[in-house]
Amino acid sequence: MTEETPQGGDARIEAFWNHAMLQARINPFEVVTGPSRDSTLVPPAWSLDNDTAEKALADKVLVLTSPANQHEEQLEAGGFSILTREDGTPVALLQTAHVTTHTVEEMEGLEERGDWETVRETLAPGDLVVVEKFRVLYHD
Predict the structure, then answer these.
(1) Which of 6, 127, 128, 139 pairs with 23 at a CA distance of 20 to 30 A?
(2) Closest Cα to residue 136, out of 48, 68, 69?
(3) pLDDT tens for each residue of 10-20
């Protein structure tokens, strides 16, 4: 389960972003000029349970699934986000590597299904599922 962390009030997130951006060797010129909104602002921060976060850090990749109707806009690869522990401590800079949409039926044949077993219980046959694959660019 992901949860958005409020922006603007947590100096830890901004400090983590500034450090992680350098460590991940994200082009500082790109960040200043910004080819997209994602690279000009501190990216959104969100949390996972500590066990899932630790597994993502160890694997250097995170795959999450969610019902398509939970997304107001279409997700795209390339955006940055900051993963936090349950207590709000930032732990990883992520980049969305791949986003696909599948039906519930198609999900059964996929190899990378992330947290599909949990999400499956909330869907009906024919519903659409978004699969997001994130790369861990940097972690503490």
Answers:
(1) 6
(2) 48
(3) 889 989 988 99
CA atoms within 13 A on the CB side of 79: 17
CA distance 103 to 128: 4
Whether 95 contacts 80, CB under 8 Å:
yes
The two counts, helices (H) then strands (E), for the chain are 6, 6
Alpha-carbon distances of 2 from 22, 53, 112, 136, rounded to whole Å: 26, 11, 18, 16
Distance, CA of 128 to CA of 47 (rounded, Å): 24
Residue ranges of the chain with per-residue pLDDT less than 50: 1-8, 31-35, 37-39
Q: Which residues, listed in sequence order, are joined to residue 129 by a DSSP beta bridge?
A: 67, 102
Q: In what side-by-side order are the strands of the sheet with 45-47?
A: 3-5, 45-47, 80-84, 90-103, 128-139, 61-67
Task: Answer yes or no: are the C-beta atoms of 132 and 96 closer than 8 Å.
Answer: yes
pLDDT at 31: 47
Opening angle at CA 82, ends 67 and 80, nearest 5: 75
